Amino acid sequence: MTPLEPMAGKVLEMLQVRASDALPTWLAAELRAQHPEATSRVLRVFPGSVARSRELPRYAVFAVDDVEGQVPPHLVALDTMVVEAIRHARPWSMSASEGHTRVLFTLSANAEVRYVVEVQGDFETGDSRRWGHFAAIASAYFARLVDGETDSLTRLANRRAFQSQLEGGLRRWVAGNRPWFFAVLDIDHFKSINDQWGHLYGDEILVRFAQLLRETMRGGDLLFRFGGEEFVLIYGTEDEAGGAATLERFRRVVEEFNFPGVGQVTVSIGFTRIPETPMPASMLIERADQAMYHAKSQGRNRVASWDVLLAAGKVSAAPARAVDFDVTFF
Predict the structure, then answer these.
(1) Which residue stretches of the chain are H helix?
(2) pLDDT (0 to 100) of residue 140
(3) Nearest 10 degrees: Cα torsion 18, 22, 26, 29
(4) Which CATH architecture has domain 7-148?
(5) Domain 159-311 class?
(6) Mean pLDDT value of segment 193-207
(7) How many CA within 13 A on the CB side of residue 293?
(8) What's the rounded Cα separation, in Å, for the pair 192 and 81?
(9) Local confidence band at 170 (pLDDT 50, 70, 90 cut-offs)
(10) Which one of the listed residues 98, 229, 238, 240 is annotated catalytic?
(11) What is the pTM of this model?
């Protein structure tokens, strides 16, 4: 592999990438630029707890490198080299035999590998030490980006990460033949819980709620703490009926969970299908919010679909209030 010359220049280029999910794509593109004859791919690695909750292999890895958005993230089979790279969190590893070279770069955060960037082909390794140094810098920078995009209490992605996802484009997450949905989840009577039990109990509820959300949803779903007791979920299902069923399943999980010191807590959820044509993110948020507030008005602890409510004439397609996200969802 030819050395990066000069390394300082490449590091400065890398520092212009301001979103964690964009860094692996940038790294893969840089590797392809260095070796046009090689192939590369980006693998997203999900924590073991997520894999176990979804009955996936110990290392649940999804290919997410289709920049054209034609193939949605999909679970891929792993070989020994990838498993070892994940297990030991090495910044990079290499194998070479009979003129074929394969290099893996890992990007880690919170002591867990989140992405593996792979490049392989018929090329020379060159000065591997430079690439080793660069891989270490890339992994450290990735960890800083993730820290800035993570809610310190629940460890879910935060509002800043949500903004970054929108600005970077979500087409690769909502591609394919199955429908994708946008949901807003709001914990019922949360202010009363804080007033009655105190903020320490309120914080514990948020932590446990986030844990239930991670354990219930699939590895390819996007989870955010939007602010306060409000959460955002972007998820795909096999069909339209699955959109409501997924959220209803989570609503029951929350309702049946015994929150320490408080007991029963419920959640109201509003959701809408993500259309195939681009639309402003603010409109999707508004639609899901309308459905969520309708669920609140009907007694809370329920799931409401904006699309169903619109067909019944119970909500309006016109924006009811301003939302501070005006970027295009795709």
Answers:
(1) 7-14, 23-34, 48-53, 80-88, 128-148, 159-168, 190-197, 199-216, 240-256, 281-297, 306-311
(2) 93
(3) -160
(4) 2-Layer Sandwich (3.30)
(5) alpha beta
(6) 94
(7) 11
(8) 52
(9) low
(10) 229
(11) 0.76
